[in-house]
């Protein structure tokens, strides 16, 4: 099977595009290190050029996010990131901080770890954190949608169904429960800030909420929402599934790896 043949299937193209959006959101919510920032810019540029039937407003929002990112500099972005998500903890980027029951927190963390382990995901050694970090959950969804694209291209029906079932379950039990609250908090905290970096994070939150809510509708999932934050203390954030810097420098893992879809069957 050639790359061109694999990409003729609209299901493959849509899954790859969804994977790219999840990855872009994960990178956007990660601490703004140079290699990750550049990777996000390249990924957003690729997304704008990738021909696929998607929500027109979603593509426009991705274009606005790219422009906003390019209008910022990494120093100011890091300062704003620390102010909003870390030092003063104005917004929490951890799912279990929205759980009132401490026993539910432990169960949720264990369940998230179960999802990651089932698909062979390990925590990165650089900037480790807990598995309920928003960047990790978004990255996990990016990997699941990439698995869906690969299985669809190879006509592996069972593997595709496994990837789709995992996406549905993870949205219902985890990401879909709290992303709307987090994104709303980001918009509220930055509503009076007119600088370029605040604009970027408000656009990021708006894109995340619109996309994930669309995913919930697509899967016909109605999660039990977590509507407010319950705790205030947490370790500094990073994405435990994110690759170390040498691997990240290889570029996009979503749209840039189309050749992987034509690998030989097992």
């Amino acid at each position: 099977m050639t790359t061109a043949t694999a990409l003729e299937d609209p299901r493959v193209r849509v899954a790859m595009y969804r994977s790219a959006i999840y990855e872009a959101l994960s990178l956007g919510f990660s601490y703004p290190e140079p290699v990750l920032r550049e990777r996000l810019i390249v990924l957003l540029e690729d997304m704008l050029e990738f021909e696929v039937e998607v929500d027109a407003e979603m593509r426009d929002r991705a274009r606005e996010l790219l422009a906003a990112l390019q209008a910022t500099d990494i120093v100011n972005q890091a300062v704003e990131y620390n102010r909003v998500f870390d030092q003063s903890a104005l917004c929490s980027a951890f799912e279990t901080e929205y759980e009132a029951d401490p026993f539910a927190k432990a169960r949720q963390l264990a369940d998230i770890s179960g999802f990651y382990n089932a698909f062979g995901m390990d925590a990165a050694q650089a900037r480790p954190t807990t598995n309920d970090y928003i960047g990790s959950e978004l990255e996990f969804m990016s990997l699941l949608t990439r698995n869906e694209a690969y299985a669809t291209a190879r006509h592996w029906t069972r593997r595709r169904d496994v990837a789709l079932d995992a996406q549905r379950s993870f949205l219902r039990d985890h990401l879909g429960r709290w992303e709307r609250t987090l994104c709303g908090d980001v918009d509220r905290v930055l509503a009076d800030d007119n600088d370029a970096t605040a604009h970027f994070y408000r656009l990021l939150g708006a894109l995340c909420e619109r996309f994930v809510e669309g995913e919930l509708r697509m899967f016909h999932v109605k999660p039990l929402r977590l509507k407010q934050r319950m705790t205030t203390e947490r370790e500094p954030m990073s994405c435990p599934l994110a690759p170390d810097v040498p691997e990240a420098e290889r570029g996009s893992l979503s749209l840039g790896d189309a050749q992987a879809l034509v690998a030989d069957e097992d």
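Residues 3-262 form a domain with the TorD-like fold (CATH 1.10.3480.10). The chain has ten helices and no strands.
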